[in-house]
Amino acid sequence: MPVPQAAALEPFVKGLMQQHGLQGQDAPALAAAIAETLAQALALFAAQVMVVPGIAMTPAASAAPGRLM
Prior knowledge:
Elements: H1 6-19, H2 27-51, E1 62-64, E2 67-68
Antiparallel strand pairs: 1-2
Helix pairs in contact: 1-2
């Protein structure tokens, strides 16, 4: 499952920053850092969703409804 890269997210982040009045000499670097962090978070989330469809558990682990041993 492809996720957007930081370069694709950076214009979106810059637009949000301008919309909310965040500006200054370090604003472009902040937008790049936010975009990179968001891209990494999306990649990790997508990897976990593809690998872990559920929690593996044996029938013995659940003794009664709502009670885990």
